[in-house]
Write a structure and sequence with these properties.
single chain; 287 residues; alpha/beta; 9-stranded mixed β-sheet; two-stranded antiparallel ribbon; 8 helices; globular; 4Fe4S_Fe_S_CS; metal-binding; iron-sulfur; 4Fe-4S; Organic_radical-activating
Amino acid sequence: MNSRCASVSKVIPFSCVDGPGSRLALFLQGCNLRCKNCHNPWTMGRCNDCGECVPQCPHQALSFSDGNVVWHAEACEQCDTCLQMCPQQATPMAQTMSVDEVLRQIRKASLFIEGVTVSGGEATTQLPFVVDLFTAVKADPQLRSLTCLVDSNGLLSETGWQKLLPVCDGVMLDLKAWDSECHIALTGRDNAQIKRSITLLAQRGKLAELRLLVIPGQVDYLLHIDSLAAFIGQLGNVPLRLNAFHAHGVYGEAKSWPSATPQEVETLAQALRERGVTELIFPALYL
């Protein structure tokens, strides 16, 4: 039995967009970046039970009990009022789940999925839980054939990766900007550790996918294309996914940013191809 717990914002039993094949996707609450373009901004913080959302809920799906905000799922209409007004960029709908509780959900879906992806927020901010969960999956005769992937921002230290990689089959990771100054402007943190993580994971054969997000007028990939392409080239045979920004679901100033067009993505792709980066994956759709 494993009772180690995590704060979970959502469980999707069958996802086709969180890694290869059909996967159970577990979204953990809390992140150590503050990306302006985040499409799940309510997963950044942790609810501090301030109660500001309770009187604002139009469906009386929230109450205050013994100093805690309580979510009543049966009354919730998923209108997102609480998410949009939360000063913590959190959600009162997050639930505490143990490893054993998550394993039960995985077992229910196991015949129909190829693996498990832990995402966020940032999955590695709750590293002991992820390590215990993956260890349990690998030890379970019914589940051990499932692949265990992490969707990460790469801020985890080398010591942290050493704990996770023995039970993790791969990591999908974003490089949100090349230059640290641009990265700080977009996310609030520099990207030195992220680049170290990308290199380490590639050396260990655990970098399942590197991703670049094309945000017109905001990212600096083309300004540093020679350095970027050289960095990607030394990683080896790693799939590079080009994603196109759209403003759906984002908060704040990024709501006014224009969506990336197919031509803007192709411009970056062509610049990378000219420098020897050819294993590219393109967006499935543009908004």
